[in-house]
Amino acid sequence: MGVRTLAVWCPDWPVTAAGHPQGEPVAVVAQGRVTACSSAARADGVAPGLRRRQAESRCSGLLVVQDDPARDARGFESVAAAVETVAPAVEIVRPGLCVLPARGAARYYGSEDAVVGRAVQAVERVVPGAGTRAGIADGIFAACQAARLGQVVPLGRTAAFLADLPTNVLDAPGFVDQLRRLGLGTLGAFAALPPGAVTERFGSAGARAHRLARGLDERPPAPREPPPDLAVAMGFDPPAERLDVVLFAARHLAAELAERLEELVLGCTVVAIEAETADGRALVRRWRHQDGLTPAALAERVRWQVEAWLLRSDGGSPAEGGVVRLRLVPELVHPERGRQLAFWGERASDGRAARALARVQGLLGADAVATAVVDGGRTPAARIRMIPWGETRPQGTGSGTERPGWPGRIPPPSPATVYPTPPVVSVTGPGGGPVQVDERGALSAEPARLVAAGGSRALPVIAWAGPWPADERWWDPAARCRRGRLQVLAADGVAHLVAFQDGRWVLEATYD
Questions:
Q1: Could you give the count of Cα atoms lying within 13 Å of 195 in the half-sphere of its Cβ?
Q2: Could you read off the pLDDT of 416-471 as tens digits, one per residue?
Q3: Does a structural domain hold residue 329?
Q4: For the residues of 286-299, what is the DSSP string, one character each?
Q5: Given CA atoms 187, 188, 190, 191 in this order, what sign does their dihedral have?
Q6: Residues 473 and 375: beta-carbon distance below 8 Å
Q7: Where are the alpha helices (DSSP H) in 59-194?
Q8: Contacts 24+ apart (CB under 8 A), 392-398
Q9: Would you say 18 and 65 are in contact if contact means Cβ atoms under 8 Å apart?
Q10: Which of 23, 212, 312, 369 satisfies CB 3.0 to 4.6 Å to 389 for a cystine?
Q11: Contacts of 501 (CB under 8 A, 6+ apart)
C-alpha cells in the first residue's frame, strides 16, 4: 500500500500558463500535433494527438499556441508555492501536477477533506478560473487519478477505487490497446491477472502497470539514503541577480551531479533544488520523474526552476537582492539499470545526432524526419511503422515482442531485407512439379528447388519450415487475401521468406 498522498491537478495547464482565458478555443501544439487544448476547443472536437491542420479544420476560430515547457514550469511555480502554504514537501511531477504527503496535513487541519479544500482554495486565489482539482489516495498514481475526479479515497480503499477506472488512465496507448484487445477494459480486470503471467507476457513495463492497477507503489519500497557527498553547491559573491549568471551555474551543477550519479551507477528520481537569497530566504523546490532524471532532464528542470524564481509575470521575484548559493540535492536515488554504449565504447546517449535531426525537422517540418519501429503485423513489411523523429514510441514497439491477434505471423528473427515489390519466384517439388498451398494450409509436395523469376537461376532447397497460412480480411470479399508463407534455406546458405498467393510464389524477404 502506498503512502497517503495529496495530488493537486490543474487541467489544461499549458493553456492556462499561456495566459489565455478558459472560454477561448486554444490549442497548444508541439511538432505539428496538439498536446493540450481548452475546454472550449474540446467542445468543437479538438483533442490531444490531432495534427494541427485537423484541429484547425474542426474549430475555425482556434487559437494555436506553440508548446513551451519552460513557460509552463515558470508559471506553475506560483501554484506550487500556493500549495506549499497548506503543507510542506511539495513535489512537482510535471507542470500542472504536484503531489505531497497528506498524513501530517490531515492531522493538522482535522481531516483529509479539509486539506483538499484548502489546497484548491489556495491555488484558485493565485490562478483564478484554472479549474483546480485535488484528491487524496494511497500512492502517487492513485492520488493523481483521485485528483482528476476530485475525490478523497478512504484509507485502504484505493484498489477498489482504481478497479472501476478504464485502462487508458495508464497513459500508454500501445499497451492499453493490447489490454483492450484481450478484453481487459478496466484496471480491476487487469489487476486480477496473476503477476507472474503479466511479467511473462508484457515484461517490466507490464509489471509496473500491474502494480499501479493493484493500488501499489510503482516499485517495491527500497529506501536508500544517498551518500552525503552527492549534493552539489555553488556560491555567488557578490550575489547573482542576472538570470544568465545563475543559469550558467545551474547547468554546471546539473552536469556535476549527473557525473557523480553516473560514477556510482545510480539513478535519481527526486531532486531538491535549493537557493539562498541575499535577504536570508531559503527557497526549496522538489522535482520528481518516475523514470529517473537523465542528465538532460535534470539540467532542464533546474533551468525551469531558476527561471521561475528569478522571472515573475507580476514583475516581482522571490529572490530579492540576488542569489548567494545554489544547491542540488538528490533525495531519492536507486541503482541504475545500466546504459548502452556505442560500438567503440563511447556514450551512445550523445545528443549531437538528435540535435541535428531536430534542426532538420525545424527546416523541413516534423514529418520530414522519421524513424522505423517494429509493430504488430503478419508480413515483414506490415510490421514496420514510420513515426516522426522525437515522438513517443508506442508502448511495446521496437522490443521484438509479438502482439496478440496476429495468427499466421512469422516467428522471429525478422528478415534483414524486405522487398517493396516482391519478385515472382517458383518453388518446385522433387519431381519438378510446382508446389502449392491448399485452402487447409498444407503443401502439395516438399519444396526441392527455388527458381528465380524467368528461370534464370535455380537453387536446391536444403531446409524449409512452414507453411504459415493466413486468411486476411475474410469478411470483405473484395479485399480478402489468402496466402501461405514458407521459410526456405537454399544451397548457397541464404534463407528466404516466400509466400504463395493467387496461384503463384513471391519472394517477400531475405534473411541475413
A1: 10
A2: 788 878 888 888 888 778 888 887 778 888 888 888 765 567 788 888 887 878 77
A3: yes
A4: EEE-TT---HHHHH
A5: positive
A6: no
A7: 69-84, 103-109, 112-126, 140-149, 158-163, 173-181, 187-191
A8: 394/173, 394/174, 395/172, 395/173, 395/174, 395/175, 395/176, 395/178, 395/205, 396/174, 396/175, 396/178, 396/202, 396/205, 397/174, 397/373, 398/373, 398/374
A9: yes
A10: 369
A11: 481, 482, 483, 484
Listed residue (36, 28, 51, 49) closest to 394, CA to CA: 49
Considering just the CA atoms, what is the radius of gyration of the chain in Å? Answer: 28
For the chain, give the mean pLDDT: 78
Question: For residue range 148-190, what is the model confidence (pLDDT) as tens digits?
Answer: 898 899 988 888 899 989 988 887 777 888 888 888 889 999 9
How many helices (H) and strands (E) would you count in the chain? 14, 20
Boundaries of domain holding 294: 228-335
Residues 6+ apart with CB under 8 A from 77: 285, 305, 308, 309
* Residue 100 one-letter amino acid: L
Distance (Å, rounded) from C-alpha 271 to C-alpha 360? 33
The grid coordinates of residue 165 equal 477506472
Residue with cell 519438378: 432
pTM: 0.52
- pLDDT at residue 336, rounded to an integer: 62
Question: Is 99 a member of any domain?
Answer: no
| pLDDT (average), residues 483-509 | 82
Instruction: State residue 40's pLDDT score.
Output: 81
Same domain (yes/no): 289, 312: yes
State the Cα–Cα distance between residues 350 and 343, nearest whole angstrom: 13
Phi, psi of 510 (to 5 degrees): -130, 135
Tell me, what amino acid is at 304? W
Find out whether the peptide bond into 413 is cis, omega within 30 degrees of 0: yes
Query: Does residue 182 lie within any of the structural domains?
Result: yes
pLDDT digits over 118-142, tens only?
999 998 888 887 788 999 998 888 9
**What confidence score (pLDDT) does residue 152 get?**
92
Q: Position of cell 536444403?
A: 462
499 in a structural domain: yes
Torsion of CA 22, 24, 30, 35, to 10 degrees: 50
Q: Based on the structure, what is the number of domains in the chain?
A: 4
The Cα–Cα gap between 37 and 29 comes to 9
Vertex 355, ends 37 and 173: CA angle to 5°? 40
In terms of domains, do 190 and 241 share one? no
